Amino acid sequence: MKPIWTRKEAITKIQGTIIVAVVVIAAVAGGVAWTFTTPPKPPQVTPTTTVAPRVDEVRIGILAPLTGAAAYFGDGMKAMSELLAKKINDEGGIKSLGGAKIRIIVADTEGKPDVGKTQTRRLITENKVHLIIGALHSGVTLPSAQESERYGIPFICDASSHVDLTRQGFKWFFRTWGSDAIFARNYFECMKWMQNKTGVKIRTVAFISEESLFGVGVATEWEKLNVDPEMGGYKLVAYIRHPASPADVTSEAMTLKAANPDVVLSVNTPMPDAILWTKTLKAVDFFPKALMTTAGFIFPEYISSVGKDGEYVIGREGWSIDLTARKPIAKEINDWFKKEANRDMHVYTMQMHTTITVARDVLERAASVDPEKLRQALASTDIAGDKIIPPWKGVKFDNTGQNIYANNFMVQLTKGVYRAVWPEEIATVPLIFPAPTWKDR
Amino acid sequence: MRFGRSTLLYLVFFGIICAVPFVSSPVVTDVLIFCVLYAFVSTAWTIAVYAGPYSIGHAAYFGLGAYSTALLYTRLGVSPWIGILVGIAISSSFALVISYPVFRYGIKGYYYTLTTLAVAEIMRTIFLAWDITGRAVGVWYTVVPDSLWHFQFHTSHAPYVFIGVAFLILGVFTSNAIKKARLGLAFSATRDDEDTAQSVGINTLRHKLTAVAISAALTSIGGAFFAQYTLFIEPDTSMAMFVSVDILLPAVVGGVGTVSGPLIGSFLLTPLIWILRIAFGSEVLHLVIRGVVIIIVVLFAPEGIVGTLGKHPGAAGKILSIIPKRLSSRAHR
Amino acid sequence: MQLDLPIFLNLLLIGLFQGAIYSLISMGLTLIFGTVRIVNFAHGDFLMLSGYFVFWIWAILGMDPLLALPVVFSALFCIGYLTERVLIKRVLGRPTHIQMLMTLGLSLIIQNSVIVLWKADPRYVHTSYADLRLEFGAVAVPFPRLLSFILAMVFALTLHLFLLKTTYGTAIRGTGQDQEAAHLMGINVNKIYSLSFGLGISCTAVAATLLSTYFPLSPFLGASFMVITFIVIILGGLGNYLGAFIAGLILGTIEVFTAYMLSPLLRQTVPLLIFILVLLLKPEGLFGRELRR
Predict the structure, then answer these.
(1) Considering the entire predicted model, what is its pTM?
(2) Fold of C5-281
(3) Which of A236, A362, B156, C90 sits a CA distance of 20 to 30 A from C51?
(4) Average pLDDT rounded to a whole number, residues A72-96
């Protein structure tokens, strides 16, 4: 084969350079021209007409992490969404739409922002979903919500708590879940209540935060609240920030022990991290008067892994089996889910139920799948608390899309089960504070 | 530099890519954007490989480009285009600073590869802990209406494709130029047998540094592009090891050391990955399949598609043989 | 951070215990490199796989991990042996990036197959001695970790004696030093490759078994240990298993002290910087042999 440069039709260097330059300029110029002269394509997928078109099915897109470290949570979300849709369909579908059936399309975000964004686009343009629910990771929810905002498709956030999500000025974004600011208040309110109830004073606190978007978001809110003398004002004696999935936390635990805080607030997302922390605290023989946690600590596999060592751990939770005693809807759904999916519920399956319940209510009230009508129905949502599992007054969105009634409660692990301990209205057992030291157990 | 049928082929190829967004659905446009992006950064990676051992740390440059652009834009309101230039300056300087001692001390082979991994990991842990870069929260963009100056497009993602293609052309042009020119021969000689090359008077150190710097610069442009598309940058998705692997995979599948290899690799792999993602939505199976694909390529087509086809002239081989191939002085290692 | 004697001793001990695990994993990796001359990027995933073996043996048969050690060791040895014969062998002598990708592809397959099979839930082995603590004055030592350390030392010694005194061991070392000569001496080099790979993998099996007595298991276990492992093998000199042994202990200690005295966030950064420093000043590692490339 003859080398290329001896071929006869070779163009000279200058001509070649000109061609390349022209192509490059043309490409960029084309892009500019495209942007500024093409009328914006209508992003709406369904045109509004005066006569409501017959709607056979309502398509809801679910964004969830089905691969990666959060797959455990995403699996539950997927299961609940699909089973619940089937349940609703069996009950007659969306009545105001003539019994239209709900179809769930699940898209894996892999916990990555770019994948979430593209999947959102795909759900909207290919699968033509009318609503999007998702996406667990705040870092994925943001770009995804930006996409649905652009297309004018309602995005209902079921489980991402970062405060900035409702500060983007989105019109189409609604969050049934609480924000880290709301949840941080829960911690500090509980701490005040603990002191009042037991008479034991809290003077010093420590934070443990993993270096992840969630961890930093949560810990930042703690910091802010602690500076407020009304809500907090405790002395911060240790602030441990470590990367997620460490191979060892002994040094960190020893730092904590040396600082000897009364209360420790901890955010660790992966369950292995929560397990490792618990075991390591035992190994260095330190346990604060109260260890207040969330995420990795509150899932069933944590309990089965740490056994008795997890006793007295307090968790900020959205779901507890105790709810089934207080709320009929909780018991009904819990039993049904356990039977259908053969697994226990957790906070994210609960939230999927809450959010789909809201979606169902919205669809019924809108009696249409027109995006603007859906958005208005969403904005005027006011669902009573007895229709949803969490112990909230209900679901009602403020003008930033945040559910004003969202809240979390505190549970404490006693005798191998997390039981609600705060607020008093839903507590089933008393909160044990201060927790006994390892030696006293 | 001479141009011939191969240039025409490239122009046709790019022309087709630019035409597709006009007729395709938005999802196809999005996948196309990733195809173009990965073809670009993979080409950038290949440039480093021309003169040196294989790096699995290019995520460092990718992330540096992404963060430079993102931070300058969100904190100081500087246009991303200027941010790209700054990113180029930062990452190529960084590459030179890191690589000079590494090459000077003659670190090669697996030692070099592990060094690149270590460097990328160091960058990641630093960016994760540093307040200026937003720690784990990263950098969040505010969405602005479509704008070229702000480098954000939302009504249609087509402009991303055009800009991406422009970058890709730049990358291919550079890759080709480095390969074809006397510089390329020197590079190959440097890589294949450094001692001999040095004895012949080729300043191998300078060549290696040039290659790495150019490679870093181009990769950082890719990172900036990624930032402007995703509008959200965090260390774990812009500087992690899997990013480095995603950068080099198209080149390996397509053919390392070739100009067209990364393009072919990216345009085959990226759609495949997305199809798997969508088809196997709920199964982690698609990652297993990706692993299997990698191993199959490694076992049966280690020279990549372009390399393997080039070695087996048949009708297909002859047609494709006009595509520039490896200029190695020896056929096999 | 305050550093009085008891804390210092505590940190030192934990550092050594942690380092011992790193040493084990790294010895396996460097052994593989010494003979087969590839860096096994799937090493962490074999560690994780071993962990799952240990867990299932415990969950189904109720056998304590340390008792199950011989079984897990042999099982992973066979898996390693077969992996080399079927897959790794095909990329020997090929360019670095090909070998790298082979092991990276393997890593993807192993890790995600485990997730497909057993989900991403964490697992934890409960042993009867998990909560024992030995106290020497103000210094307290968790028993499982002390036990792991002792056993790790025993294993390292055994490995050392094996490589030094036995025929196979000498063959492995010889092949590592000079393939041609080994071949000429009548050593079946191919078989040695498979044996070394198997042995390297079974080192991770031992590490995983010891880890399982106090560390939770998940499909992402490998990721937590691999970066440090790479640093250790460079520090110790690629191919030098004694160097890896010592370097592991050193790095484990450095990591623990860094986390306590500086910040947990720098746990990995400081070792990584040391890595680069060593590479620049003494690339053959602290104890490595002369670089012949």
Answers:
(1) 0.84
(2) ABC transporter involved in vitamin B12 uptake, BtuC (1.10.3470)
(3) C90
(4) 91
